[in-house]
Amino acid sequence: MFSRLKIFTCNANVKLANEVAKHAGVPLGDASVFKFSNDNTFVKINENVRGADTFIIQPTCFPVNDSLMELLIMIDALKRASAKNINCVVPYFAYARSDKKDQPRVPITAKLVADLLTVAGADRVLCMDLHSQQIQGFFNIPVDHLTSLPLFSRYFSSHLDLTNVVVVSPDTGGTERAREMAERLNCDLAIGDKRRTGNDGKTEIMNLIGEVEGKTAILIDDIIDSGGSLCKMANTLIAKKAKKVYAACAHGILSGNAVHNLEESPIEKLYITDSIPLNDEKLKCKKIVQLSIAEMLAIAIKKIHIEESLSILFR
Question: What is the pTM of this model?
């Protein structure tokens, strides 16, 4: 059944790709992906893929533009090698926050990236926790959009005391995500009013809607970048007399002073997935707990290959 299923990876998250292949019961495909001395990226598929259903696992994480270029070139290599289907597994989709024209004379880069993948020859994209649902509509090919919420909710149900918990969205844009988590955990919901003050990533916490006093708060977001806004919200929750604060974010970019910000914050633990690999400094941070999405991606890949529904992954 899976004889024509082939899984490849570029260089963005080789560890995750190996774990996905292991869960799928399929050996990771043989491909060379490297840079020449002139900084040009080179990709070569080292095995026969004619007529194969191929999947490329490549989050477009740091270095973002290199990761994206590797993915585009591998798509082209597979297309020219006569692969039957080219499916891009992009757990973390870079430029997702550039999803609308919210200032004069700015691009909608998420749409541009969608066009690049499509024109390169991708037949399908598999993503997880896109910054906004509308990005699925930027593609003219099928998009399967997974969520990390079932993974987090199962973990919290097993490892945290949920007797007096409130799920908190750091801003109004994440309300739907936080509401779903609150329903899964059967607990209360609170919503922060966060305003961005420019293009430097700085935010200001304006207000908090909901009761958090005496409760354990779980902050839910799709991305933690520098960690500044998440840590500010954690401080606000403590000021509002929350008992403890935990945070869960699908994608741990953790750029700049993020680890320092986290260490200095009242956040007890930060739960992230392995959509983005962590360097040694981040792995040493005792507040960071990484949960694997490898099994979820493997199930999705096999379901797509045999043309079955992915609904089991949303329970």
Answer: 0.94
